[in-house]
Write a structure and sequence with these properties.
alpha+beta; Butyryl-CoA Dehydrogenase, subunit A, domain 2; Butyryl-CoA Dehydrogenase, subunit A, domain 3; 3 domains; four-stranded antiparallel beta sheet; 10 strands
Length: 346
Amino acid sequence: MKLSNEQCELKDLLHRFFQEKVTSDYIKSRIHNNTRTDAALVNEIKELGIFEGFSADGGGFSVPELGLLAQECGFYLVPEPLIEQVLAGSLLPQLLSPHDGARYLELIKSGAGCTVAYPQCCQLTLSQGADRLTGTIAWAVGVDVATVLVGSVNTAKGRRVFCCSLSDKGVGKTETTSLDLTTALTSLTLHDVPAVVFDEHSSQRIEDVLEATKACEAAGICKRVVEMSVEYVRTRSQFGVPIGSFQAIQHKLADCYAKSESLASLSSFAAWAAVHSADQQRLTARAAILEAAQTAPWVCETAIQAHGGIGFTWEYDLHLYLRRAKAIQAAFGMTEGRAKEIIAAV
């Protein structure tokens, strides 16, 4: 999709910033030191105006710009949950009905940090008539600095999105390990926690935007992995010639490139549809995230094979991209329920 001049400037700004700040050495240092969040990096990101750019009155950035941020987060494996924080803390009021928006703004009026728990991670029940939550959330990102959580719960009327305070006495938090070494996870237990439950329309819009932007993140992962692979096969020689001259390698990377570009187009369109095409937003979001859950791990695994032995080593970064792709697959991959949802969307 064609980007506006403002979107091109935003993408270029984010690309240059993350290229300088989120290097391979920086990521490995965070993993080695078990740094769950870096306040200095977060403050520098805030100075870019990313969080302020998404305004509740409909001005500033919108979902397509959040998609651009997500692509760069995937490309550079940004180890802060910016997608979830920006979506929950700044963009969410634009997606809610007036009634739900007023209730949400009341909860976050103190400037509280916010984050999102993915629907498939939430195993919660809602008490009838009291809007109180009990259950577990297998894992969530950004809980270390957030005081408000947005998640999903199954009700008698279907799945609904809710928000609640993480400071409530009924919330228990436990740091947990992750296959994705670049992301800090926390498991949660909720017992009789008061919640604001959104209506069907608001809930669907929030889930659509989350899925579209996480698909954009996966597209960024694929793009970077393909670039790394092409650069490697151009310089790595075997039998006196670059391995990129072998047809078997060329065909593998051609397939990776084609799938990567297809996912980038589909996810970008899903982010666009969330604002400009209400009739298509649900189907495009579902299609994008399910394609991302299948494509991103496959591209990473194929790239590792193209690299040969070095692709499997701890020092090389490919395994970190595969881990991030697998985490997205675990949170948004195909289930029986999601298969029914995409059929219904069609």
